[in-house]
Amino acid sequence: MRTFIAVDLSEEQKEGLYTLQKELKKEFNNVKWVNHSNLHVTLKFIGETEEEDAERFSEIVQKAVRGFAPFEMSLNELGFFPGPHKPRIIWVGVDKGKEELQKIWKEVELAFQEEGFPLSDKNFKPHVTIGRIRRVQKKVPAQKWINEHSAYDLSPYLVDNITVYRSDLQPQGAVYTPIDRVYLAKV
Predict the structure, then answer these.
(1) Which candidate in 36, 40, 85, 149 is catalytic?
(2) Which end of the chain has fewer CB atoms surrounding its CB within 10 Å, N or C?
(3) Of residues 36, 85, 127, 149, which has the active-site annotation?
């Protein structure tokens, strides 16, 4: 099974991102939009694992987040990876709570490394992927959208847990199922 570690969004934030996706659909074609129910902030993609490892992953995450208190997270800033000139991924960045997420990400990375998993080869920029551009268009309105929507803002909500997810690839797209939630509580 495919597994990853993530921070969930509030329903209000998911609805706000769904509204943004509808706006972007008017300008961008050839985009695979992330399903409303699948929107999240990925902390670590583990990949293919055995089902019996799920409990172990929860224990690793629990060790990593020990001492972290719940925190508020808000979303803002529309962006594109690798950049607006050749965009492949459309994302919305984390504003409030960014520093907490970066600290949690670092601890999750280190905890998994201690258990024999490789460190991520990418820098961590807390974000929610909202779409994947299938092929680069001749004239991409990415910079226009960044200029017009760069301060896209979604209300903060309290992050009180980290979720271990299972990802099943289906013909209609990936289906994410929570395996376990590890709750934050300052010790």
Answers:
(1) 40
(2) C
(3) 127
